[in-house]
């Protein structure tokens, strides 16, 4: 099943330079590359005479200046946020201050206001108090003369994650939910594998022709990719079950079996991904654990 995944790791861009990716849509890439952000966070400007910005990116004065330069005097009316991970949301307040735009997103009020003990990008990974000016729920629509965006609630990578459908265009701004360059990190307690799988299945019901993700290049043939992602998750799940069946009893010891050539920089992310699968298996009654499944707590088949 793993061979069903084909990643697109080429991407033509220059930091600070707006690149057209579809009629009426330009992309700017923030200069925050890392093993988890690829070349950097994508910011999209949507519209011709008045603009919406999707994911203003990390707190970076140079990136903010590039957004304003790309606007070229056209008013920015809305700032849409796919989720409150800091590499997507931290420039929102500064962009609002510069433009008077309204910030729209799901919000974090209904989720725990404290961070996880372990996460793949440090203690400042998430803006736990992000509160948009306008809260968007699944199916909410925001419309201007030149565009129409519908919010799709797609938790899994993050509980507040939204994708945005561009009406009449077959385009989905997929945030970190589905990307072309790599699989999406699902890291508890922020991430939920059960939610992620359900959100992937939701996208199979939609008829999009292209995804514009939060990192990496545009994704063609998205339905095939979503199906491959679902197969990949089922394959990983079987690997976890087979490891436990073979006597490998902890998340920490499963990681090198599933990821034998893992980069040390990604070892925590890999452990969190295994933990997400274990939690999903426990919830379905296939695996048991005496207490919460910490990385060193013994696991067994149910």
Q: Your description of this structure?
A:
The strands form three sheets. A seven-stranded mixed sheet has the order 1-2-3-4-5-6-7, covered by helices on one side. It has a six-stranded mixed sheet with strand order 8-9-10-11-12-13, with no helix packed on it. It folds into two domains: 228 residues, Metallo-beta-lactamase, Chain A (4-Layer Sandwich), CATH 3.60.15; 65 residues, Arc Repressor Mutant, subunit A, CATH 1.10.10.10. 28% of the residues lie in helices and 20% in strands. α4 packs antiparallel against α5 and α5 crosses α7. It starts with 18 loop residues before the first strand and ends with a strand. About 3% of the residues have low confidence. By secondary structure, the protein is α/β, with parallel strands linked by helices. The chain contains seven helices and 15 strands.
Write the layout of secondary structure elements.
Layout: E1 19-22, E2 25-29, E3 42-46, E4 51-54, H1 61-71, E5 76-80, H2 86-89, H3 92-99, E6 102-105, E7 134-135, E8 141-143, E9 148-153, E10 162-166, E11 171-175, H4 193-204, E12 210-213, E13 219-220, H5 222-245, H6 251-258, H7 267-283, E14 287-289, E15 299-301
Parallel strand pairs: 4-5, 5-6, 6-7, 11-12
Antiparallel strand pairs: 1-2, 2-3, 3-4, 8-9, 9-10, 10-11, 12-13, 14-15
Helix pairs in contact: 4-5, 5-7, 6-7
Write a brief caption for the model:
With 302 residues, this protein is α/β, with parallel strands linked by helices. It has helices at residues 61-71, 86-89, 92-99, 193-204, 222-245, 251-258, 267-283; strands at 19-22, 25-29, 42-46, 51-54, 76-80, 102-105, 134-135, 141-143, 148-153, 162-166, 171-175, 210-213, 219-220, 287-289, 299-301.
């Amino acid at each position: 099943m793993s061979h069903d995944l084909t990643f697109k790791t080429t991407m033509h861009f220059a930091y600070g330079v707006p690149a057209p990716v579809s009629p009426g849509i330009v992309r700017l890439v923030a200069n925050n590359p890392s093993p988890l952000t690829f070349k950097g966070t994508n910011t999209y400007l949507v519209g011709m005479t008045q603009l919406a910005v999707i994911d203003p990116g990390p707190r970076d004065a140079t990136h903010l200046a590039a957004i304003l330069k790309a606007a070229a005097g056209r008013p920015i009316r809305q700032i849409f946020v796919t989720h409150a991970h800091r590499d997507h949301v931290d420039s929102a307040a500064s962009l609002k201050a510069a433009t008077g735009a309204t910030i729209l997103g799901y919000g974090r009020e209904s989720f725990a206001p404290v961070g996880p003990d372990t996460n793949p990008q440090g203690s400042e990974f998430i803006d736990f108090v992000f509160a948009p000016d306008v809260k968007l729920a699944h199916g909410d629509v925001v419309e201007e003369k030149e565009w129409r965006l519908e919010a799709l609630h797609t938790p899994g990578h993050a509980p507040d994650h939204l994708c945005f459908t561009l009406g009449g265009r077959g385009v989905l701004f997929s945030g970190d939910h589905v990307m072309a360059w790599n699989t999406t990190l699902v890291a508890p307690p922020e991430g939920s594998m059960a939610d992620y799988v359900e959100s992937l299945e939701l996208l199979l019901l939609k008829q999009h022709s292209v995804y514009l993700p939060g990192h990496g290049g545009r994704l063609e043939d998205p339905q095939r990719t979503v199906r491959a992602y679902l197969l990949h998750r089922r394959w990983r799940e079987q690997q976890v079950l087979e490891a436990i069946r073979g006597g490998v009893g902890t998340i920490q010891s499963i990681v090198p079996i599933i990821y034998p050539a893992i980069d040390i920089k990604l070892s925590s992310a890999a452990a969190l991904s295994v933990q997400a699968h274990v939690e999903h298996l426990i919830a379905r009654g296939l695996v048991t654990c005496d207490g919460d499944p910490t990385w060193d707590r013994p696991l067994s088949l149910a």
